[in-house]
Amino acid sequence: MANCGAAITPSTSVTQFDDLHFDPEGQVIINMVTKNDVSAASAVDEIATLSSTTAASSADNALYRHASNVSLTIHALSKRIPHNQQSKLVEFCIRLQQVTVPDPTNGGVLEYKGQVFWSQMPQMSITLAEYQLTRAPTGSNEDASYSYENCTAWRAQLSELGFCHYKEDISWNYDHLTRVFQQNYQPTRKRQDVRLMCMWFIHAPQKVWLDFQLRRKRENSYLRMTEEFQPWFWSSRKDFLEDCQELPSEDSEDEDMLSDGDDDENDDDDAEDVGVEDGQDLSDKDTQELIGRALNNIEEVEIEQEIY
Prior knowledge:
Largest sheet: 2 strands, antiparallel
Number of helices: 13
Helix content: 40-55%
Order of helices and strands: HHHHEEHHHHHEEHHHH
Number of domains: 2
Number of strands: 4
Shape: elongated
InterPro entries: ARM-type_fold, OpdG
Pfam family, one: DUF3632
Strand order of the largest sheet: 1-2
């Protein structure tokens, strides 16, 4: 795998992560995402070296703490790094999953409670799979919503790349997307829900297509195949996002200039525009760009799958 990731933008400086105290593992990963000259491959090598060193330690629960520090750092960064700047973090996760570590004491490969470092992503402390139990924030907390969007994008990117075995696939409880598989479900036009849906279509269009095709649903915390694919599964989501998209009219500026601002009836209509619910709307530039990118990916999948 080529190192395709650049460091995050200067505006997201290392000071944004100075409250993370998962050293030394955390410092390795933070250096990777903040410095252009540190690749994901070299960061994985450093973590593997730390794994071997830790395994030779006689300290109680040393491997447990080591794996926890890595997992906690990854998750914390996934919430803080903007969704479109996560390529290095995603590459790090994929590369780490492909690494095995020699056991310095017993020979062979390093294991902890029967699971191999790092190819089996040992289930210890707060693991990556457990993070997916996180629910979307409620209310109007913009910071929490932003963090959840970023984390969702990270999960989507890893899912698209087939991260982990299916039972531990980190898309297994993406409620905000599996909900829309239900025939009687009416998608909300709340800004947060629309943006979360877009994250999946932007970062994991093939994964979403697969789940739609198999009509998977949650059952005992896992996605299982149920009925055969129905065309409306896909088209209804596309129609929904198209309804959320605001296409500016060529005459809109002229109409604004001609408006005298005294038409109360028009004012009432404006208050009921599609895309506005509970005081939230979809008119901001960033959300509209996300919707546009999601629709572009949907169309690319349709072309590839010959859906017309």
